[in-house]
Write a structure and sequence with these properties.
The structure holds 2 protein chains of 2 kinds.
Chain A lengths: L1 H13 L2 E7 L7 E9 L5 E9 L2 E4 L4 E6 L5 E2 L1 E5 L21 E5 L8 E7 L4 E7 L5 E12 L8 E11 L7 E12 L4 E7 L33 E3 L7 E9 L6 E9 L1 H15 L16 E14 L2
Parallel strand pairs in A: 2-18
Antiparallel strand pairs in A: 2-3, 3-4, 3-8, 5-6, 5-9, 7-8, 9-10, 11-12, 12-16, 13-14, 13-15, 13-17, 17-18
Chain B lengths: L1 H20 E10 L10 E5 L5 E6 L5 E7 L1 E8 L6 E7 L3 E2 L2 E3 L25 E4 L1 H6 L9 H5 L5 E2 L9 E2 L7 E5 L2 E2 L4 E2 L4 E2 L6 E7 L13 E7 L8 E6 L3 E11 L3 E10 H14 L10 E20 L4 E22 L2 E24 L3 E24 L6 E27 L2 E27 L2 E10 L4 E16 L3 E14 L2 E15 L4 E12 L1 E4 L10 E4 L7 E12 L5 E18 L16 E17 L4 E15 L11 E2 L6 E10 L4 E10 L3 E2 L4 E5 L8 E5 L6 E2 L3 E13 L5 E9 L9 E11 L4 E12 L4 E9 L1
Parallel strand pairs in B: 1-7, 1-8, 12-17
Antiparallel strand pairs in B: 1-4, 2-3, 2-5, 5-6, 9-16, 10-11, 12-13, 14-15, 16-17, 18-19, 18-49, 19-20, 20-21, 21-22, 22-23, 23-24, 24-25, 25-26, 26-27, 26-28, 28-29, 29-30, 30-31, 31-34, 32-33, 34-35, 35-36, 36-37, 37-38, 37-39, 39-40, 40-45, 41-44, 42-43, 45-46, 46-49, 47-48
The chains are: A mainly beta, B mainly beta.
Amino acid sequence: MRKYLTVIFAALLYFSCTSTEYITLEDRGEKMVLTGQWADTDTTHLLYVGVVDRKGVHPLDDATVSLTINNGTPVPGVLLSSGTLYTSYSDYFGSGEGDASKLTAFVFDCDFAAGDKIKVSAKSATLGASASLVCPAKPIVVSCDTTHTRQIVSLDSEPEERVNVRLKIRDLPSEVNFYRLTLYSRYYLEYLHTMVMEPTWLDYSSEPILGGGGQGGSDSLLGDITGTVNNYCLFDDYSFRDSEYTLRVSYEEWDEDSSYLLYVYTVSFDQFHYLKALDTVSESSFFSEPVSMPSNIEGGLGFISLDAATAIKLK
Amino acid sequence: MKKLLLFVGILISVTTYAQKNTATVSGYITDSASGETLIGAGVILEGRDGKIATGALTNVYGYYTLTIPKGRVELQYSYVGYGDIIRAFDLQRDTTINIVLTPSESIDAARVVVQKDAGIQSTYLGAIDVPILHIKNTPVLFGEADVLKAIQMMPGVQGGSEGMTGLYVRGGAADENLILLDGVPIYNVDHMLGVLSVFQTEAVKKVTLYKGSFPARYGGRVSSIVDIRTNDGNMKETKGSLGLGVLTDKFHIEGPILRDRLSYSISARGLHSLLYDPLIRLAGKAKLLQTDDGVESNAYANYYFYDLSGKLCWRLSDSDRFFLSTYNGRDQLGAKFSEREDINFMRTDMGMGWGNNVVSLRWNHIFGQRLFANTTLSYNSYRMLMDMGAREKIKDPTDPYDFRFRFDYNSGIRDWSGTIDFDFTPDPRHLIKFGTGYTYHTFMPRTSTAIVQESTTDGTSKDKYKFGEEKNYYGNELTAYFEDDMSLGDRLTFNPGLHISWFNTDRRNYFNLQPRVSAKYSFDAGVALKAGYARMAQYVHLLSSTQISLPMDLWVPITRHIKPVTSDQYSAGIYYDGMKGWEFSVEAYYKRMHNILEYKDGASVLVSTTGWEDKVEMGEGFARGLEFFIQKTSGKLNGWLSYTLAKSERLFPDGEINLGERFPYKYDRRHSLNLSLSYTFNPTWDISASWVFATGGTTTIPEGQTVVMDPQERVPYTEQQYRYRNNYRLPSSHHLNLAANHHKKLRKGAESVWTFGVYNVYNQMNPNLVYVTYVDKYNSSSGEYESQLMMEKVTMLPILPSLSYTYNF
């Protein structure tokens, strides 16, 4: 549907006249921006720092960063470089460098445990910002089993070998909890002589609490026509508060030599809404209302999160 | 209870006493040439001092009733553009007098100083009779006269996107207008994404806009009522017209089946591409696309729309009249492509159609002389249907393959309704209207089905998928109303009313009492003061997040979580019509809206009604304004000038939108100025001009940039940072339209009319679509690339000349 509407609007635009006007935004001064997506299973944690002004985002070479765990001794962040992308696993594939060239990267070498209260601070000559995080408890995975099927899932492809996963989890006790899933495939890249681990598409179309329910939601036959977008497989414990629940997801086993790891994360309330906003941004179009990105940075912009993971090796 | 009985007893006594000394004159007022009933024609009784003692107007069915003292009376019958008729007689009992008025060459307006439903003489505020002749003679876009575009020129009304037919009245949204076609609501009023409305001006008799103190008989929307009445059909002779324009072809014919008894009226309109559709299909099937390597291709693509309306009017007797009306309109978009090469065959097709279907049966009955009743039964539906298909076939005897895919999507709304309305005139000081109605709504939300079938040598597999909501929603709506337009002395008129509505859906009941009251005090020399209050309730919403009308815009009912929208509007004004042929008014209003909907951040309900409640927020709306209106109604030059100073805001206190702070509405345009003029040189030439100016509405622009990162790729990206909604004021827009009509009398009473028009004469690039994005712009002084916010403005309507021809017979 959106493709046809895009064609209609493209035709209208083709026959129309366009003019452009540059808008000079109100000068609101400079603000520090911090961003990082951490997991307790990582051994190092990357933090990107920059400065935002009317002209855009720029690296902040004179910044210093530190973090404290439970009000302990500050752990300084080590400057990696400005303008270089670093990832926790590989930067050979996928999205490229993004806008890393506009930021300064720091790395923290520390571990987190459930319940740790972390405060991240960043300072430069004129700016400062901070964020407060709590390391959540790891999700409780009761069991996980898989079955194989052969299935038509795409208009123009041959039937695929699919792995169906039944994942039983137990809700963390009391309070409202938020979770997400990520499937990684891990394989050896011959020409680079290295193991690579990258996220792989997880089909949640059969899982109601992930917005599926047997009706689209992935790159199924109808593509972008129907379904609910949930790129990060987010869910809360509304339907299984303080009890157990079995999720049903699946994936395509496109390489017999790859291993697959399913990561189940516990995420914070802020992270849940941040990722929901990212979902909305990714699906937004000309027809959508603008999205205000949540921020948990005091005195600045951006978002830092810390998720707790339980990893399950599926194959 | 005792007090109520006492009140009824007094009322009966007074009425009985009055009846002994008075008698009622009633009847229909019609046009001599066509037999068409005249709405708003006046009946005046002059007093001994030569001043108007009392009077009445014909209702929307052309019926009047006037109760006056018995004795020698002289009644004057008047209507704008017609010669007066005076009837003198001795009135001793209830009498029926049907009057036939003859159009007059004189174009001076008759000033009819009696109660009216709209205009300065009316007790209602914000009620305007849109001059139908002006609509017809003033083509706007592509040379097409349009009812809704003419309404956009009225004070307090804005048009939304440039050149489109949306109505935003006194700070309200486009779905808050009740648009009635002979008393039946029309849900989809646009063609071509809003370029034209569905109303054919040839068939329209009267258009009344209510935007202030609404009459109690109307309900269901909170911002405005547009009451469109169509011609009944010429009772005397067959008349019609053929029109050919830049975009459309038009045909209209009306005439008697039984003279003075049974008449018909038929109107049809369509895009030129409707007529060419068979040729386009033929051309597509012809082997014009066959290539040298033996590949045969067929192709077809077309878009068209049409409107078809018809009416039968049967005057059974002076007491009974029946009307059967029907309207069918549709937009249709289709595309098909197929290719065949040897044993391979491939085909894809797409079709999309949307439109209204309305059928209504009305019965007018007169009980005695003082009670007029109209009963209406109607069926009304809006449907949108889309289907897509693909097929791939390989006729290989050893390895055949056949793949088929079919997808269809449909949605809509359907109403069955019945209403009965009474006009009761116990005496000249009271015009009482009361009635009741019931509507059974069926809401058909988005439902889509996909079927995939694949056949190979291994066998055939077939999968069927259903998406969206399979079940329909149902709603029951029951209404009742009462109002009394009463004269308290010579100067004061008072109209109290009450509209009661009950809406049942999703196992919940909603009940709303909607009081309406307006008053008018007339000073000498044509000066009047008015004040009014109205409460309105609305039980349906239109899901649309775009500025243009899309076929996927869906009507949905209130639910357990989404409450009815209500509004309270206070208005007051000063009016002057002491100069013959001129009317002046200044009107102020304050409107407060409750439970209005706004989409949350990122929400787009395009093609999806699934979970629409989670995508919207309920909040408050505030609108206030001052409207100036000057109208010249007679002479060779006539027209109007309107100016509106207005402000409209929204507030969502729970903080989900705009951090819980007030923000301007998208169509908050502070100043609007509309000038519409027409000048008749002589019976051969007349010209018209309209100039529209409005300061810009609002849009949301980012306040800067931020950086985002997702937890899977862990790659940082810059993203636009929004904080406040509708935080940027767009530039003002204005344009000038000119048109000239050349009339030529032909034989046997026929007439040809050539219309030359230019839309947007000085080619002002007013934007239809606006979007903002960041671009990296090179700064030569710093030698660096800097992010710069750029606004792209798309203008679809530059200077557009038009030429059309109409043959009237």
